[in-house]
Amino acid sequence: MRTERWFRSVRGGVVTVTRITSERSQVAPMPGQQAGDDNHDGAALMTTRSERLSQVTQQASDDDHVWARNPKDALVMYIVVPRSLKMSAGKVGATCGHAAQLLMQRYWDVKERHGSDREDCRRMVAWLETSYPKIVLGASDEEFQIVRHLDGAILVVDIGLKEVAPGSVTAVSFWPVRKTNAPTIIQGLRPL
User: Fold this and answer.
1) In 10 A of CB 81, how many CB atoms?
2) How is residue 130 annotated by DSSP?
3) What is the pTM of this model?
4) For residue 115, what pLDDT band results from cuts at 50, 70 and 90?
5) Strand, coil or helix: what is 71?
């Protein structure tokens, strides 16, 4: 079944109306769905990612989009990497990808359990409507020990196949936050 959704967003003072189409297909029940949870014609349906993103985007209020209007105080995802591990550029790129991916998985888990009314979920929705800005910062061992214990930190723990020892924390990511609201230690770190 093909569906079509429209939503309105505000970025930089410009109102954009977007149409997202998606297809649904018959599949086994999704996690958390009972076998009897069917639509009107009896088929269990899976929602595609684009439709789920559209549904989440529709829940963001216009106030959430204010964060995207001022680049000096943009809504960004911070990823902090320990400088002492001396990882190659490829390894840093991979670990930053894992950090962003783990944060998105956490977002979907939190949203599923608690709904999207939480402040961190609302910021994530607003961030998803921007160009996904991320800032990768380097930290000394002392700084990294503090950063990894900050509230909301998502740790990337490496399995140690090539460059680092098994169990090494190779990155820490944080829920999107306005630059001016980032913890002081994060604001003081330098780009990697």
Assistant:
1) 25
2) T
3) 0.65
4) confident
5) helix
